[in-house]
Amino acid sequence: MILIFRHVDCEGPGYLLDVLQTNKLDYKLVNVDQSDPVPADLSGITGMVLMGGGMSVNDDLAWIDDELSLIKQAYSRDIPVLGHCLGAQLMAKALGSTIRSNPVAEIGWFDVKCVESNISLSYPHDFSAFHWHGETFDLPNNSTLLYANEHCVHQGFAYDHSIALQFHIEMKQSMVEEWVRRFSTQISTPTDSVQSREEIVRDLDCRIETLHKAADKIYLHWLSKVNQ
22-30 long-range contacts, Cβ below 8 Å, gap at least 24? Predict the structure, then answer.
């Protein structure tokens, strides 16, 4: 059973659910945004997934401490963890890293580059990912940097069988359209690292198709560890 934590109603697992259903894998969704309790332990759980959210891991929210404890438990029990954006920051904090403001907000479609020394057939190399974040994490000890770009030095890391991604590979077209509508004030003044609504939705179907090809490779690599 794969445990999935949702922190905001519009930031669910998206395309990841398609992958899990295609591979006939069992999962349980914990809707933190609807006050679902964070389990105390991971008995019977083979993998743990953390989705995004507009809050900071440094906020004083009871469920954040509960999730951090559960992530540490997963690490100690060699249960693979997968984090998206806020989820990646939670993973980094559970490993003792500092979460801080990124030099710039990064919102829209921007390339991420696989770090040359860590190129692996298990991960897609350079591709255009979807971003919506203002914070970043320090690279945890004993982790491997996977991705970087000009706007954010630490875009993803691997730790044992776990993968943390600062960007979003779970996006579906409907999710992107909802985010730009719901969070329109955050993209009202475009910059080099914040795209306009028009740019974000341009060629959206093609961009999503390309994103899913990269997501397939990352998700299936992670799932291969879950199924061991």
Answer: 23/223, 25/223, 25/226, 26/1, 26/2, 27/1, 27/2, 27/3, 28/1, 28/2, 28/3, 28/4, 29/4, 30/3, 30/4, 30/5, 30/6
Residue 87 has pLDDT above 60, yes or no: yes
For residue 164 the two structure tokens come to 């943390």
Which residues on adjacent β-strands are paired with residue 30? 5
Give the closest residue to 5 by CA, choosing from 90, 79, 129: 90
- Supply the pTM of this predicted model: 0.95
**Token duo for residue 119:** 């190129």
Q: Does domain 2-226 have CATH number 3.10.310.10?
A: no
Cβ neighbors of 154 (< 8 A, separation 6 or more) are 136, 137, 138, 139, 145, 148, 166
- Domain spans, the chain: 2-226
Q: Which two tokens stand for residue 201?
A: 């939705």
Q: Measure the CA–CA gap between 83 and 133, rounded to whole angstroms.
A: 14
Taking only the tens place, the pLDDT of each residue in 59-81 is 999 999 999 999 999 999 999 99
